[in-house]
Design a protein that fits this description.
The protein is α+β, with helices and mostly antiparallel strands. The chain has 24 helices and 21 strands.
Length: 688
């Protein structure tokens, strides 16, 4: 036939070669992810490879094969654990990456159910897509008898002993049928992960890359006591085999029933009718994903009615009645062009990566932190490497590690410079410290860092006085320390290009406003090592004036709740320097507020109590409720913990805080009870 290509044409050969390469790459990364719990590339990079293979196989059906990884679920089953055959296969999910793909799935669902002419909507359940490890747990007559990983979807690994040690998973269910299998996600809370990395750094060991990989490695330990000590958590999301259970009409009903059995079910789920409501759910959680203490990478949307799920059925790999909507990636790979060192306001020398620009976490990233020299050496990242970069929300971008399979032989290790890049002073690593410092007090980089910190939002919040203007004013000799900001010769500034009268007036107004900031902000703005906002508030509240803090010794400061000996010694040493004396004198002459808050006359009814507020209260703004608590001697942390005295709830409280309070047995009170507590210091009694 004219225009046809023979099977041996260069085009077909190149396509076949690309398909073979893609399959080999996917199989390699499947083993790294599913079997070794050590993925080399982010999920989004893996998804891109899989999608490319799917496109090629669809365009060239003669090259599609039954053993292609596009037809498989999960990865190979490890021989480290006994095999478990799933009575009901654990399938994976198809993905949607944008609204158009989500709507296309909804259209396929409606067509599959022949609902095009039906007035009633399909009806969906929206859930969060937990970034963890899928597993199945089987209960017989209420007793846990087996737990298994997904494996390849048909056969998983027996991890019963490890799952039995996860405290949030019950070993016995209440009012359970003869058999119930629950599918869910084992995950590591972000707070647990962060604490674990603090321990790793203290021990001189490499940081764990992310909570998902750490959870996977913790779950598949040969020693169950290691798993038990990792404080893993679990959310149930699906039923497997059930014998003797109730008749359930919908997936939402099934989740409610799992909760009644005593299994943890994520509270952030919603039944909706339309795809617009599905999109509203996904958009909301894309914005608030970092409000949670666990990582999510999208949402899962399921047809609610179980009879409709059965009618839709499944492909060889995934159910047609469910789809995973993937959020934009927070991890990507790019090239590490070079490693440089920045000098901060305290002289700390911090290595950072200069990257080939990459879009990740909602913005284009060109630089990322490498923490310190120990972490550079432990991660073994080298200029020229392909590296994994992570940016989550407002968190500073971080290089997680190299993709070693792409590193050529002979690439040289990076060495920390011996001298300060800003002033050429020899860098020093104090004994017992993880960081390296420039100890030159007149180092220009430190000077600029101190002034930038002083003007930042956490300090005096001087709007318009950003990094470039601070650098410009230092360059022209207008300022040498934060106190000089209040004595700038604006006639000289007006002579600079780009500074009209409006700009100068705005800066003057911002500087005037900064003079009224609380003493705690001024203390933070000084950049005293170890002194943060809570310690600054404690000092300002206790002493009432900066002069009293200057006159106090470290011992008396250390006795203040929220200060302690480390902060106290650092503050006392700072105010003993001539530089601090000169700076405070400039603040005094400029008319800055040097007085602490007026001591509250309110009775200290909440002394020793810790109250968390969630939702909208009628009689208090958010700040007003916090002030009412603090003025009565209480604490107002942002999250619920074992130390929380009570959770105060108003309209539309956060479900995650409510769930955490219930899990920990923390009392939940309304606004009326909160008012009584403020007045009397007594929690309401219950009739239970």
């Amino acid at each position: 036939m004219a225009g046809s290509k023979s099977s041996g044409s260069p085009s077909d050969s190149s396509v076949a070669a690309e398909i073979d390469e893609l399959r080999s790459s996917i199989n390699y990364h499947n083993e790294r992810y599913h079997t070794m719990d050590a993925p080399e590339i982010p999920d989004v990079e893996y998804d891109m490879i899989v999608r490319r293979l799917q496109e090629l196989e669809a365009a060239h059906p003669g090259l599609a094969t039954a053993d292609s990884p596009t037809q498989a679920v999960g990865g190979a089953v490890s021989t480290a654990f006994a095999p478990v055959t799933h009575t009901v296969p654990m399938m994976s999910l198809d993905n949607a990456f944008n609204r158009e793909e989500l709507e296309a799935w909804a259209t396929r669902v409606a067509n599959g159910l022949d609902l095009a002419s039906e007035a009633a909507p399909v009806g969906y359940v929206c859930e969060l897509k937990i970034d963890g490890v899928a597993c199945s747990i089987r209960y017989e007559n209420g007793e846990m008898v087996q737990a298994a990983t997904r494996g390849n979807g048909r056969v998983g690994e027996d991890i019963t002993a490890n799952v039995a040690g996860i405290s949030v998973i019950p070993n016995k269910l209440k009012n359970a049928p003869a058999v119930v299998e629950v599918r869910g996600e084992v995950y590591m809370p972000v707070g647990v992960f962060d604490a674990l990395n603090v321990e790793m750094e203290a021990a001189g060991l490499p940081r764990y890359v992310n909570p998902r990989n750490t959870a996977a490695g913790s779950l598949r330990q040969k020693d169950p006591s290691v798993t038990a000590g990792r404080n893993l958590h679990f959310w149930s999301y699906q039923l497997g085999l059930v014998e003797g259970g109730p008749t359930l009409g919908g997936h939402g009903d099934a989740l409610d029933w799992l909760a009644e059995l005593g299994l943890p079910v994520n509270p952030e789920r919603r039944r909706v009718s339309t795809i617009d409501q599905v999109v509203a759910f996904t958009d909301n959680w894309l914005e608030h994903r970092h409000d949670l203490d666990y990582e999510i990478d999208g949402a899962v949307v399921k047809v609610d009615t179980l009879s409709r799920q059965r009618a839709l059925g499944s492909t060889a790999k995934a159910p047609r009645w469910a789809i995973a909507y993937k959020f934009p990636p927070e991890e990507r790979t790019t090239t590490l062009k070079e490693i440089q060192v920045s000098i901060g306001r305290t002289g700390k020398a911090t290595p950072f990566a200069v990257l080939e620009p990459v879009f990740v976490g909602g913005s284009t990233v060109q630089m990322a932190t490498l923490h310190n020299d120990d972490q550079v050496q432990l991660k073994d990242v080298r200029p020229g490497d392909t590296v994994i970069v992570r940016k989550a929300g407002d968190v500073i971008p971080e290089v997680l590690g190299p993709v070693l399979s792409e590193r050529p032989k002979g690439r040289r290790k990076w060495k920390f410079p011996s001298n300060c890049p800003a002033c050429n002073t020899q860098l020093i690593r104090p004994e017992g410290e993880a960081h390296i410092f420039c100890v030159n007090p007149v180092c220009p980089a430190q000077r600029q860092g101190r002034i930038e910190h002083f003007t930042s939002r956490g300090g005096l919040d001087i709007e318009g006085m950003g990094e470039s203007r601070v650098a410009l004013f230092i360059e022209h000799g207008f300022i040498n320390d934060p106190g000089d900001l209040y004595f700038i010769d604006w006639a000289e500034v007006a002579a600079l290009e780009g500074f009209g009268q409006t700009s100068i007036d705005n800066l003057n107004a911002a500087l005037a406003a900064s003079k009224t900031r609380p003493l705690a902000n001024l203390l933070v703005g000084l950049g005293v090592r170890h002194l943060g906002p809570s310690g600054a508030e404690a000092l300002a509240g206790h002493f009432g004036h900066i002069d009293a803090i200057i006159d106090a010794d470290a011992e008396s400061m250390a006795e203040i709740d929220g200060v302690g000996p480390t902060i106290a010694q650092s503050v006392a040493a700072y105010f003993a320097t001539p530089e601090a004396e000169q700076l405070v004198d400039k603040f005094r002459r400029a008319g800055l507020n040097l007085e602490g808050p007026v001591r509250s006359e309110a009775p200290q009814t909440l002394d020793g109590m810790s109250l968390v507020v969630s939702g909208t209260l009628d009689g208090f703004s958010r700040d007003g409720a916090a002030e009412a608590i603090k003025s009565r001697g209480g604490k107002n942390p942002g999250s619920v913990s074992k130390k929380t005295t009570a959770l105060v709830v108003g309209a539309e409280p956060g479900a995650s805080k409510l769930s955490k309070a219930e899990d920990l047995g923390v009392p939940v009170i309304d606004e009326a009870a909160f008012q009584v507590l403020l007045e009397t210091g007594q929690l309401p009694t219950t009739n239970e």
